[in-house]
Design brief:
Helix 3 packs antiparallel against helix 4 and helix 10 packs parallel to helix 14. The chain has 429 residues and is mostly helical.
Length: 429
């Protein structure tokens, strides 16, 4: 296998991993509502998904580091296909809860193994000093392209389904299940992995906890990783605030819930396109800024300014309000992708292959923890003081996170393991 071949396979897997989620996201809430669920029940189902995902992030990351990336990715594809197929036929609250549990397992399993596979393969082909930014940028861009395409197709397909054949809103999840099956085939046949020694199930289960504990200690004890985990939490605060408040804001500006739903679908698709653009230009931003840490800081500042503009223009109505909100949304996602991609590169350069997926799961856990914090605080703040107040707070959090990249220690190689190496001036993170 060549580096170019590995990149093509990584990009394909990245696209197929997120395409089912994009297809589902366009109609998920509408399908639950159509099947008789209340908003409270829908919120509880989404909470169950989040709890399952957070609970399994580290164990599944450790499992991938023990038994291999390909096997865990294949399991994720199986769970995704099962969850979306079940969602399409679910008619009760209990069935949707089961669907969300299975989705949570799939999401946790998919967190990190594909990226870890690509990084390990590139290191094997080109050495430990291989430039990760171009490949990671293309993979991140394809993830965003998949979400953009999925949202647009998933939103349009129900309008094309002949009446009386099948519930139109059930078709996008079924298409997502088919895409997950395609992902399974690609993972099994297109992601070769060095053979692992045969181990019993008991030995695997005994090794996963120690791998997880090692990953946590590495993330907490290393100056680079500790800062990156805090940056991920700040991104989680930002994303949850946007997801909570943007739909209502657009509905208010559009005049009706139906128009607001359409406006949000279009803006979300454009946001994913902006995210793909941000991932694609991240290497160039890093070169212009003089390093990945400085480039990540620039992305964070851009995010903070865009969310601040949302808060500052909250009083605008009609078309001016829609335009300013849409532009802020696009700039925010582009900046967020620049920061996220460069953080991902720094993260992978700071760990060895043995802990790679575990640390990636720790980062995902930090992101979701930031989201939970925002959900429990900024949502209440928005209800009492308005959306602009919550956006100002989120903007301040992200702006403060840019300071995490100042004098960032550089990862280096010591022996067989990549560990954080502090510069001459001590820098506690």
């Amino acid at each position: 296998m060549t580096a170019r071949s590995a990149l093509r396979r990584y990009m394909l897997v990245s696209f197929l991993t997120w395409l089912p989620l994009g297809l589902m996201a366009a109609v998920m809430v509408l399908l639950m509502t159509d099947r008789g669920l209340s908003l409270t029940q829908i919120g509880l189902a989404v909470t169950v998904f989040s709890v399952v995902t957070v609970s399994l992030e580290l164990p599944t990351g450790g499992l991938a580091d023990v038994i291999g990336r390909r096997m865990v990715l294949a399991a994720s594809a199986v769970f995704t296909a099962a969850a979306l197929a079940l969602m399409s036929v679910s008619t009760t609250f209990g069935m949707f809860l089961v669907t969300c549990v299975i989705k949570g397992v799939a999401r946790a399993l998919s967190s990190g193994p594909a990226t870890s596979w690509y990084v390990d393969t590139l290191h094997e082909l080109e050495g430990e000093d291989a430039d990760l930014k171009p490949g990671l940028a293309r993979g991140g861009a394809l993830e965003s392209v998949a979400m953009c395409a999925g949202v647009l197709v998933g939103g349009a397909v129900p309008l094309l389904v002949p009446p009386g054949t099948i519930t139109p809103l059930a078709v996008p999840p079924l298409l997502g299940a088919v895409a997950a099956v395609v992902l399974l085939v690609v993972v099994v046949f297109a992601l070769p992995e060095p053979a692992h020694a045969r181990r019993s199930l008991g030995s695997v289960l005994r090794e996963v906890p120690s791998t997880v504990v090692g990953g946590i200690r590495l993330a907490a004890g290393g100056a680079v990783l500790r800062r990156l985990m805090l940056a991920a939490a700040a991104s989680g605060v930002l994303l949850m605030t946007i997801e909570l408040l943007t739909p209502g804001r657009l509905a208010e500006l559009a005049g009706t819930s139906e128009r607001g739903s359409l406006a949000y679908a279009v803006v979300a698709a454009l946001g994913y396109a902006a995210s793909a653009t941000g991932s694609a230009i991240a290497p160039r931003v890093a070169r212009l800024a003089g390093g990945s840490a400085r480039g990540a800081a620039m992305g964070a500042v851009l995010c903070a300014l865009s969310v601040g503009s949302l808060a500052a223009t909250a009083g605008l109505d009609g078309v001016p309000g829609l335009v300013t909100a849409g532009l802020a949304y696009l700039v925010m996602f582009a900046g967020l992708s620049v920061t996220g991609l460069l953080c991902l590169e720094m993260q992978h350069n700071a760990v060895s292959a043995a802990e790679r997926t575990t640390v990636t799961s720790t980062s995902s856990l930090s992101l979701q923890a930031g989201g939970v914090l925002a959900n429990s605080t900024l949502g209440v703040l928005a209800g009492q003081a308005g959306a602009s107040a919550a956006w100002w707070v989120a903007s301040g959090v992200v702006l403060a996170s840019a300071l995490l990249f100042v004098a960032m220690p550089r990862p280096g190689v010591t022996g067989s393991s990549r560990v954080p190496v502090l510069p001459e001036r001590s820098c506690s993170g």
